[in-house]
Amino acid sequence: MDRPNYITPAGYATLRAEYEQLLSTERPALVEVISWAAGNGDRSENGDYIYGRKRLREIDRRLGWLSRRMKAAKVVDPAAQADRSRIWFGACVTVADEDDAERVLTLVGDDETDASAGRIGWNSPFARALRGAAIGDVRRVDLPAGEREYEVVAIRYPSP
Fold this sequence. Notes:
- Keywords: DNA-binding, Elongation factor, Protein biosynthesis, Transcription, Transcription regulation.
- It contains three helices and seven strands.
- By secondary structure, it is α/β, with parallel strands linked by helices.
- The protein has two domains: 5-75, Helix Hairpins; 78-156, Chitinase A, domain 3 (Roll).
- It starts with a strand and ends with a strand.
- The mean pLDDT is 91.
């Protein structure tokens, strides 16, 4: 990776919980089913065996991906942000567009984005445009629907 994989403590805990759940619960149960299915005879037409092996490959791939993401993760606590007057990682930002429609966005790690909840990735075009902005700054954002201007109305960080 050429850039750090910033992530909040809650985001890292979510990745870790998924990793632990797959490794300690789902994978062993699946290995048991595959072993049972293999003992039933012909494997070429054994649905439990075929599906189990396919699912096991999916779980192993996901475990590998989670492991790499956690190894590359740089956990940053937004509550410990030194400069709270500007937009940095973990900021909860209220922006207004040209039509005075307000949006509340939280800048989080790329692995914990959820657009429907207003959580945008730190490396998204919108977040890159907002980085370093202060209240009252106007930033131009190039979106798929076209270029728009947003004014920073408020900046909040979690309490330490």
